[in-house]
Amino acid sequence: MTENLSPAAAAEVDYRVLPKISLHDHLDGGLRPATIVDLADGAGHTLPTTDPAALGAWFVESADSGSLVRYLETFDHTIAVMQTADNLARVAREFVEDLVADGVVYGEVRWAPEQHLRGGLTLDETVEAVQAGIDEATAAARADGRDILVGQLVSAMRQADNGLEIARLALRHRDRGVVGFDIAGPEDGFGPARLADAFDLLAQNLFPATVHAGEAAGLDSITEALAVGHALRLGHGVRIAEDLTVDFDAGLEDGAALVTCGPVASWVLDRQIPLELCPSSNLQTGAIAAFGTRLDQHPFDLLYQTGFKVTVNTDNRLVSNTTLSDEMALLVDAFGYDLDDLLALTLNAVDAAFAPLSVRIALAEAITESYDGLTG
């Protein structure tokens, strides 16, 4: 472990130099505003403004509504410019370039191919285009001495009826860049059971799934993600905290609170099912409304201190105007974390990655060595 890495020392670190793992990051939520402006005219799409800075601000303001439904509406503008192979490849390339600039060494980019067919592409062609952009960016990074591994998480839209087709798509590309499956879109009222046949097919083929749950919907959505979706990770999963009872008057040493887990929380905790927590996004969408409206009221620390396998993620870098470095800085400021905490959270993400064990072991060793080097 690292030594003498107090919260004050952590706050002085340039977080961009810390090696990071990105597990929950949407392709259509990570475009550069200037790219959207550049591509919109050719796509025949009208934007709220053609000034990149003003457009970036518009996305954040529109998403900061406390409603997941309103939050999702902002994606109409990004998806509109992602309907050709060239545009998809460019967006994917720049997406990875921005990860590299933020110090990410392993990333999983999730996106829904079925939303990118308006220009005549087939599902397979969309996946191939995104992979081409990923490959170009990773090769350029490697040539510059900055190694990064990036895999695709193919998502099915939960309100549509294409789950089985998208699951088959993911399986066709499992050895060509796709590392996992997800479902996205409006969570409340569109549970994983709607796509049960897709999840069953994936499980039968030993292909990993992460499921958005415990964000706009509560504990039942988490149970369904685990029981029906065979989820190995929970996308967000933050509302698992609603199944915790905290007793501040338990008489424990040092005034510590006694935390009691309900049945769903116990299952997730005992089996160390990873939570893909996205602090800034959770504030924007109202996912933590039961706990508060400020980052220091986010149950992130409660879950971390209780022993849940929590990971730090951005969700959508454009609409939250954030990076993984920013999210780390916010957590240090809100909860007084030191670099040992940031290392522990990063290693949680390594463990949770949909990568071979040999890759995860190498990542863990390299990341730990990098953190150790910060103290000489």
TrEMBL record:
Enzyme class, spelled out: hydrolase
Q: Which Pfam families match?
A: A_deaminase
Q: Which UniProt keywords apply?
A: Hydrolase, Metal-binding, Zinc
Cofactor list:
Zn(2+)
Domain named Adenosine deaminase is located at 19-369
Known EC number(s)?
Answer: 3.5.4.4
Tell me which InterPro entries the record gives: A_deaminase_dom, Ado/ade_deaminase, Metal_Hydrolase
Q: Which family, according to the similarity comment?
A: Belongs to the metallo-dependent hydrolases superfamily. Adenosine and AMP deaminases family.
**Family matches, as NCBIfam families:** PRK09358.1-2
Q: What is this protein called?
A: adenosine deaminase
